[in-house]
Structure formats: C-alpha cells, structure tokens
Design a protein that fits this description.
- This protein is an all-alpha fold and about 120 residues long.
- About 75% of the residues lie in helices and about 0% in strands.
- The longest helix has 22 residues.
C-alpha cells in the first residue's frame, strides 16, 4: 500500500473527506488536495506526525510498503522473535509448536472453567 492508499483507507474507515480531515488534523486543505493532484513526494515529517497522531498509527505504518510489514509493525519484540524462529522451522517443528500452543489453551480453559465436574 502506498501513502494515498493508506490515507484513503483510514479516511473511509473514519468517515472523513479531505475537508474534514484537514480540519481534524490542522493540515491545510490545499496540502491534502495536492497529494491527490500532484503526488505526495516531499511530504513533511511534521505533517506525517499529525496524521499518525490523529489516526493512532505509528510513523512506521506510513513508511511500510507491504502487507507483511504492516502486520508486523504492531508486534512486540517477543512476538517478532517467535515469528522469526517459526520461519526457520520445518513443517513438523511448526506443527509441534502449534500443538503445544493449543494444549496451553486447553489447560487455560480448564483452569478458568473451574474443577466443578
């Protein structure tokens, strides 16, 4: 996704048009309109920060280009480490990890459900 695709997505999700976004973020309407007419090359970091703050995203969100990058932006360091290690495993190792995670879920459900059998 490029910058405008992300912006369009977030504007649509939040029921905004260029005018309401301009007022909400304190970004001149002509700046926002210019991104659509002339492109967004030379976009200022301060403007990007206003968008990130308003939409509750990180600056990384706006910089990421692939879906994979977007998905991993909000992961903790521990989650990234787990994914990195899983990517290096063969199928049987991944299946063993999945079975272990499922077993942990079963144990948690049993414990939270009480022992009233």
């Amino acid at each position: 996704m490029d910058f405008l695709e992300k912006l369009n997505y977030l504007m649509e999700k939040n029921h905004l048009n260029k005018s309401t976004l301009s007022k909400a973020c304190n970004i001149p309407y002509t700046t926002i309109d210019g991104w659509y007419k002339k492109g967004y090359e030379g976009l200022k970091l301060t403007t990007l920060r206003k968008l990130a703050d308003y939409f509750g995203t990180t600056l990384d969100y706006w910089a990421a280009e692939s879906e994979e990058q977007l998905c991993q932006i909000n992961l903790s360091d521990t989650q990234r480490t787990v994914i990195s290690r899983l990517e290096k495993m063969n199928d049987s190792q991944v299946n063993a990890v999945l079975a272990f995670v499922n077993a942990l879920g079963d144990i948690e459900r049993t414990l939270s459900g009480g022992s009233g059998s």
